[in-house]
Task: inverse folding
């Protein structure tokens, strides 16, 4: 037992050293002088790669129909209440006629795709290459899985092809996606689609900070707090989406 612990500790130390060396290499590369041919070659490759990701995304998603995106943590396990809640939300969305889009990975994303898949609806996964080799989960429709290199291309796809956003508890990535959606709606770059934050206990402190700091210091307007709803149950989350489109007499087959 002691030998196993020692072996594990050594492996963890090696991984930390390797990560540190890789990080140092990336930092040094940023300061390295490059000649014109290197710059031109690298930039051209990036431009074409970005274009190819946009083209693939537009081609695959153009005909998916009305969908709701579910954001949330990749770290949540299948026995966690948040996982089960995301799965149920996805299932209910499908029953109302919507497809479901997720980031394509594990955790909440997997739950969203699982709920959509089991309910017989469209299950879309916008996966991304990460250092830990995130893979698309098994509940995504095979013809609706896209894997990106660039976060910003992936974000465009989320926003362009979603009729609403369900934001489950999550970390930095989830906060980034929430902030992106709020910013685009606040600045009228996209329509005012519903944003539903699920889990009042989880979100209460950041919402208090919005009120007590951002509004108080005039960083946002008080009415910007109306850009999102906060709920506790799958039924409430789906009801917000349905009520929003009900005002415009629209249904998922529009």
Result:
């Amino acid at each position: 037992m002691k030998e196993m612990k020692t072996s594990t500790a050594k492996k963890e130390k090696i991984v930390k050293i390797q990560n540190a060396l890789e990080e140092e290499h990336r930092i040094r590369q940023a300061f390295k002088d490059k000649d014109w041919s290197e710059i031109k070659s690298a930039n051209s490759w990036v431009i074409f790669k970005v274009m190819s990701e946009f083209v693939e995304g537009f081609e695959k998603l153009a005909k998916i129909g009305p969908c709701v995106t579910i954001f949330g943590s990749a770290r949540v396990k299948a026995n966690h209440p948040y996982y089960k809640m995301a799965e149920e939300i996805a299932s209910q969305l499908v029953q109302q006629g919507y497809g479901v889009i997720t980031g394509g990975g594990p955790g909440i994303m997997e739950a969203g795709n699982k709920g959509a898949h089991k309910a017989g609806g469209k299950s879309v996964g916008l996966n991304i290459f990460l250092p830990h080799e995130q893979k698309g989960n098994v509940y995504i429709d095979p013809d609706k899985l896209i894997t990106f290199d660039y976060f910003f291309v992936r974000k465009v796809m989320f926003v362009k092809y979603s009729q609403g956003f369900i934001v489950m508890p999550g970390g930095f990535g989830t906060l980034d996606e929430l902030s992106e959606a709020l910013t685009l709606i606040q600045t009228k770059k996209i329509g005012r689609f519903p944003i539903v934050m699920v889990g009042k206990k989880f979100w209460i402190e950041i919402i208090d900070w919005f009120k007590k700091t951002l509004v108080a210091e005039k960083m946002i307007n008080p009415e910007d707090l109306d850009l999102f709803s906060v709920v506790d149950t799958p039924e409430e989350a789906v009801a917000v989406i349905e009520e929003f489109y009900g005002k415009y007499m629209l249904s998922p087959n529009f």
Summary: Helices lie at 2-31, 36-61, 81-95, 108-118, 151-160, 172-186, 200-215, 234-247. The chain has two domains: 2-50, 66-247. The chain has eight helices and seven strands.
